[in-house]
Write a structure and sequence with these properties.
By secondary structure, this protein is an alpha/beta fold. It is built from 16 helices and eleven strands. Helix 8 crosses helix 14 and helix 12 crosses helix 15.
């Protein structure tokens, strides 16, 4: 069977060294032999983007964000047209994050191309969107969902929040390939717990956990990730203690976590983040389970990760925002080899079922084919 030709027109693009949506797109599009892909990218730096950058440099962040909401900077139509004519894609793929999904749906309509859109985060609630513009951004977000041939939702709650559209499918993020870790001795202390990736939004929670666990002789939390949102001096302190390990490339994750005994997944307790925590789904949990690591989720009861884990007791859930609660839970886990073994088994089972690499890649390919069939049927009916 010939590969499906996919043109990516999105603010989020495939990136093997990225995180979140970038890494997910890379795995779906670049590591899937069923797919051949090209990405629409900038040919030059647009003047309006330079203005927005200059406003931010001068400290006018809110003005620059408002300007971007009103006049989003998009790639030139001619460049996209030329790429479509040379590549001849079967389907257009975008991500409902940023602004390019707006242009993607227009291009799809113009060229009668099937459109597949990922809905991984509730973009209208992101801090980058000024409150005065959120209704406008949400309107565009929902319009892209309505005009997609297939809307890929990262969770059941994302689909519900979008209004249960008929074109929606729920698909977990593409995971890394499952790998086995070397066994560690049950009694080995301190119990090493890894946190990796997002240290911006979740930086303050991780900082509080690191401070609270300082001095624990049973648990050692070690943190991997770029650009932590920590107060001045915190990074140097944590580096000196050896608990902040800096950026880790996704392809180095398995090797770096060989001697860890658990992974910590964090979701925000902030009321303003509630809808985002409900609709998103943490890809870091999926990757931790590919390694067979016991997973500890620290987040509110309503977040997607906790709700998923509760269904089969597949992770240890800590739903108290007080950092003393996470210390207590980790120290109790460190003292219970039986619970560690149970959670290891649960992670391996999840990696083989809900988060199975081959199954998710097949489901994504099926979603692309479904979009192509729907689009073909619509245009055949038109004529």
């Amino acid at each position: 069977m010939d590969p499906i030709r996919v043109l990516v027109l999105s603010s989020v693009v495939p990136n093997a060294l990225g995180s979140g949506g970038e890494l997910v797109l890379h795995r779906h599009l670049k590591l899937n032999p069923r797919i051949q892909s090209e990405v629409v990218s900038w040919q030059r730096f647009p003047f309006r983007l330079k203005i927005i950058g200059k406003l931010r440099e001068l400290g006018f962040r809110s003005v620059s964000r408002g300007w971007e909401c009103l006049f989003p900077v998009l790639p030139s139509g001619k460049m996209i047209h030329d790429q479509i004519h040379s590549f001849r894609p079967h389907v257009l793929v975008t991500v409902a994050h940023g602004w390019w999904h707006i242009q993607a749906r227009r291009i799809a309509r113009q060229f009668k191309l099937p459109l597949v859109c990922f809905f991984q985060d509730w973009w209208p609630d992101f801090p980058e969107i000024p409150s005065a513009f959120r209704a406008r951004v949400e309107h565009e977000f929902r319009k892209t969902c309505a005009e997609s041939d297939v809307a890929i939702c990262v969770s059941d709650d994302m689909r519900r929040e979008l209004g249960e559209p008929k074109n929606a499918v729920v698909l977990h993020d593409a995971p890394s390939l499952p790998q086995r870790r070397k066994p560690t001795r049950d009694a080995e202390l301190p119990f090493r717990v890894a946190y990796f990736r997002n240290l911006f939004e979740y930086g303050p929670l991780i900082e509080s956990a690191l401070h609270t666990l300082n001095g624990s002789d049973r648990v050692r939390l070690e943190v991997f990730g770029p650009n932590p949102l920590w107060p001045s001096g915190a990074m140097d302190e944590f580096r000196s203690r050896g608990v902040y390990r800096g950026f880790i490339a996704p392809n180095e994750l398995a090797e770096s976590l060989q001697n860890f005994q658990a992974a910590l997944v964090v979701m925000s307790f902030a009321p303003s983040h509630r809808r985002r925590m409900t609709t998103s789904f943490p890809s870091k949990m999926i990757d931790a389970m590919q390694l067979g690591l016991p997973v500890v989720i620290w987040g509110p009861e309503y977040c997607s990760a906790v709700k998923w884990a509760r269904r089969g007791e597949q992770a240890l859930c800590v739903t108290d925002a007080n950092p003393s609660a996470i210390r207590r839970a980790l120290e109790e886990l460190a003292a219970s080899p039986a619970e560690q073994q149970r959670l290891t088994k649960s992670s391996r089972e999840a990696a083989a079922t809900d988060f199975n690499h081959e199954r998710i890649q097949t489901q994504f390919s099926d979603a692309l084919r479904r979009a192509i069939q729907v689009n073909r049927a619509e245009h055949t009916h038109t004529f």
